[in-house]
Amino acid sequence: MWSRPFSSDNGDLVDAVVPFMGESITDGTLAKFLKKPGDHVNTDEPIAQVETDKVTIDVASPEAGIIQKFVAKEGDTVEPGTKVAVISKSVEGVTHVAPSEKTPSKAASEPAPSEKEVDKQIPKAETLPKVTPKEKPKAPSPPQSKPSAMEPQLPPKERERRVPMTRLRKRVATRLKDSQNTFAMLTTFNEVDMTNLMKLRSDYKDAFVEKHGVKLGLMSGFIKAAVSGLQNQPIINAVIDGDDIIYRDYIDISIAVGTPKGLVVPVIRNADAMNFAEIEKEINTLAKKANDGSLSIDEMAGGSFTISNGGVYGSLLSTPIINPPQSAILGMHSIVNRPMVVGGQIVSRPMMYVALTYDHRLIDGREAVFFVRRIKDVVEDPRRLLLDI
């Protein structure tokens, strides 16, 4: 039968390939297909996702048409330019066979042997070896000894599941372990009375939303306090590079965000030049992209200081790990009403523990404590930001 040939030469077929993934990313894992062979796709419509060490990247169809076949499998390691699928701009000749489907075996295509051939292949009963009287039957093997009562009874393997780590999880694990092995990490703590910052938010939340179109949260207050602390203690914003110290004359705040796929750390650029509204808008934008998995490499690159808010999950106290190549990280925690002595009276106050983990090779305890103390002073009395005191 005659069938119309398809090839890249006549323009009916186009290849969907892995796009450029970033300067520091050389390969990724083909995580999953979003379409099936035979599905219709539009131009630039995602058909597959590639998971890298940092982000998940879509492989888009270059033309509108029908997916003829996939030429890669889920779990394959792919590089930029690797062909993933073949798209047919015509409907004819589309095959629905995915790479994972097996082709018919050679044995299935061969004719069945005739009865005579079967008879020849089966050995006659007379040709079977006979057992001579000299041969002695083998002694039965001794029964296996039962485990003693002292041996631990492990759960059966059927109740365990082995799942490969994602690239993002492996990358996070590697960076955190490198951080532990490189930095001389030390953590200092303090407690912050959240009364005034929470009252500020409560008093102006409606007017803030009406003017800026975004809610006023607590994170912007801590970012402004961190900016003030970094300006007062620039060594916290510096980093060791070999035998040198690099002082950064900019403040880029990284915000640790937990997502279903793992931890990502988008960056708020030039936070020292932003007001409360600009910070809140940027936080909302980055958080939405993080949950959607649409953060770009540029949005996570760099950063001179990190803030991690474990309080959103209910954490009361923790020792955060430094995000290299930075030198310190601030940990926020849950707000709990506790009895405090104020003006000689015991009153209930909303309190938060804050923790600063820093690289003790570069930062002395004096600078670290001064920095945390500045965070405490600004959060407990935000008017200090207006007066710069």
Could you walk me through the main structural features you see in this protein, from its secondary elements to its overall organization?
Strands 9, 12, 13, 14, 15, 16, 17 and 18 form an 8-stranded mixed sheet that branches. Strands 1-8-6-3 form a 4-stranded antiparallel sheet, with no helix packed on it. The longest helix has 18 residues, at 195-212. Helix 5 crosses helix 6 and helix 5 (219-232) crosses helix 7 (365-380). It has 2 domains: 13-88, OB fold (Dihydrolipoamide Acetyltransferase, E2P) (Beta Barrel); 176-386, Chloramphenicol acetyltransferase-like domain (Chloramphenicol Acetyltransferase), CATH 3.30.559. It has helices at 106-109, 115-121, 167-182, 195-212, 219-232, 276-292, 365-380, 383-387; strands spanning 13-17, 28-33, 40-41, 46-51, 56-60, 65-70, 77-78, 83-88, 185-193, 239-241, 244-246, 253-259, 262-264, 267-268, 305-309, 328-332, 335-342, 345-359. A hairpin with a 2-residue loop joins strand 17 and strand 18. The protein is α+β, with helices and mostly antiparallel strands and 389 residues long. The chain contains 8 helices and 18 strands.
